[in-house]
């Protein structure tokens, strides 16, 4: 009797065994987290979670779950979500917690290769972080701030030369500008300059070079869909994975961006190996730092490429949101521009000369600018990934509202970013509103709690975002300069932009604005 004949003869016992195994696993999963409340069905099914992820509504659903079921709630058979800053700080600080498999199934870009964001092995992650952190911090990348200034000046010049609208009241001619695209060009050019030592040149050309931006957006949508359908494993599967993923030989799109990145790495390595060490030592970008700290060719390519992807979309999302909220709040816009004008008048920016960008140090001394940026990151967190961590095998006890709560081993716990940033107990009944003045809170204990949540916008502990300083520099400088020189208006107030949550990052398009010189 052949194997197939044997299987056919015993098909019903085999089927019954699979059903029994499924039921046993379901019961065990349900029992493990039975003490945690959650939406109906979350104890034995992932369906609600998958639907919300597919439709881009997961971030809002997570908030609803925590508001209804408490600061730690169940969203899947083996998954919890928390809105507690104290719990999330604990999870990201205590040894034993590690990244879940979500990281390498959802965050990998190259076939069977990890980078700092997708690496779930804690030891390997920590080793890599030590190697690349100096390049992000500015300690070795001495041209970090001046490189951002150069790209920002190109952004301002692009607006002046092509997109200023006619302010003559008799004509009122409008030159609409898609700010969502221009901001993405800015962040792409910044991070390519910092990461590869050369800018993509999107601002100078005013075009999406080789469709990098479009491909990044399409890639996010695709991975979001595959993740919701639980098919991300296909991208790492033997044979199939190689065919599905982008390749550096592609003529356009994601693969073309990968190719440009890989070629920049190869060229830099050839310079070093060719004996041009003197020239190499003068380079002060991230790539030079990565080389100095011992990354090999393949790891260099993976980390630089990850920098390009992660370093542009997140900052672009934050800057778009801050611009939108300030534009649509006249009181805030007036106060911000008054502070900017005072800073210029007092010589804090080096005068009113075009070509001089405010320093990061000077921007940090402007209280209302800081409040605007903090409030923008609060009401519209640019990163809303759940970032799940596996609970240690023996379980762990956390404290919620002064009471101990035991987290069983073998489950994962994630963060509900929106619920944490819109907590009415902390921020008041107007937590959903954009009000920068809340950051001048006189109650120092409350302000400290708010700052703790704000700092979690960039992660915590060993998993804190390496690009935090870069992002803060970009936001401070760009918001200051864009409102220093220009007045802004939304072209379509009914629908200012088109935005969709894809895997925790927002793909934003059609943010049409009218710009006039001040």
UniProtKB/TrEMBL annotation:
InterPro entries linked to this entry: Cyt_P450, Cyt_P450_E_grp-I, Cyt_P450_sf, Cytochrome_P450_monoxygenase
Pfam family, one: p450
Cofactors: heme
Entry keyword set: Heme, Iron, Metal-binding
Gene3D superfamilies reported in the protein's UniProt record: Cytochrome P450 (1.10.630.10)
MF terms in GO: heme binding; iron ion binding; monooxygenase activity; oxidoreductase activity, acting on paired donors, with incorporation or reduction of molecular oxygen
Top-rank taxon: Eukaryota
Amino acids binding heme: 465
PANTHER family: CYTOCHROME P450 (PTHR24305), P450, PUTATIVE (EUROFUNG)-RELATED (PTHR24305:SF168)
Protein name per its UniProtKB record: Cytochrome P450
């Amino acid at each position: 009797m052949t194997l197939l004949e044997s299987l056919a003869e015993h098909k019903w016992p085999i089927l019954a065994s699979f059903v029994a195994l499924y039921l046993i696993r379901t019961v065990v999963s349900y029992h493990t987290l039975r003490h945690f409340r959650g939406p109906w069905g979350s104890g034995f099914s992932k369906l609600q979670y998958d639907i919300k992820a597919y439709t881009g509504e997961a971030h809002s659903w997570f908030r609803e779950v925590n508001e209804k079921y408490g600061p730690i709630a169940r969203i899947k058979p083996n998954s919890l979500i928390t809105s507690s800053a104290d719990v999330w700080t604990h999870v990201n600080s205590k040894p034993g917690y590690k990244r879940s498999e979500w990281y390498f199934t959802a965050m990998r870009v190259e076939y069977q290769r990890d980078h700092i964001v997708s690496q779930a092995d804690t030891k390997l992650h920590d080793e890599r972080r030590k190697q690349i952190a100096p390049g992000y911090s500015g300690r070795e990348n001495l041209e970090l701030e001046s490189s951002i200034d150069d790209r920002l000046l190109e952004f301002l010049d692009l607006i002046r030369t092509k997109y200023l609208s006619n302010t003559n009241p008799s004509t009122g001619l409008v030159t609409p500008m898609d700010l969502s695209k221009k901001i993405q060009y800015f962040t792409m050019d910044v991070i390519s300059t910092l990461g590869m030592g050369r800018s993509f040149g999107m601002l100078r050309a005013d075009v999406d070079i080789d469709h990098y931006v479009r491909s990044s957006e399409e890639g996010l949508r695709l991975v979001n869909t595959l993740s919701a359908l639980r098919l991300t494993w296909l991208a790492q599967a033997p044979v199939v994975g190689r065919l599905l993923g982008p390749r550096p030989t592609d003529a356009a799109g994601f693969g073309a961006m990968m190719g440009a990145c890989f070629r920049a790495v190869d060229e830099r390595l050839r310079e070093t190996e060719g004996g041009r060490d003197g020239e190499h030592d003068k380079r002060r970008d991230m790539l030079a730092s990565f080389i100095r700290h011992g990354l090999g060719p393949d790891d260099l390519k993976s980390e630089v490429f990850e920098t390009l992807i992660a370093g542009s979309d997140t900052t672009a999302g934050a800057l778009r949101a801050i611009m939108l909220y300030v534009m649509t709040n006249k009181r805030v816009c007036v106060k911000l521009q008054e502070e900017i004008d005072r800073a210029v008048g007092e010589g804090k920016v080096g005068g009113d000369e075009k070509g001089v960008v405010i320093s990061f140090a000077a921007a940090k001394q402007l209280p209302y600018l800081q409040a605007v940026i903090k409030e923008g990151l609060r009401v519209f967190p640019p990163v809303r990934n759940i970032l799940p961590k596996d609970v240690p095998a023996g379980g762990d006890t956390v404290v919620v509202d002064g009471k101990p709560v035991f987290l069983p081993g073998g489950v994962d716990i994630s963060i509900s970013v929106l619920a944490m940033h819109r907590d009415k107990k902390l921020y008041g009944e107007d937590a959903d509103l954009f009000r920068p003045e809340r950051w001048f809170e006189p109650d120092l204990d409350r302000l400290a709690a708010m700052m703790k949540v704000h700092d979690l916008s960039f992660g915590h502990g060993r998993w804190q975002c390496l690009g935090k300083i870069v992002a803060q520099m970009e936001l401070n400088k760009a918001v200051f300069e864009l409102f220093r020189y220009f007045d802004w208006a939304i072209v379509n107030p009914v629908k200012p932009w088109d935005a969709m949550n894809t895997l925790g990052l927002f793909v934003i398009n059609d943010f049409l604005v009218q710009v006039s010189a001040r």
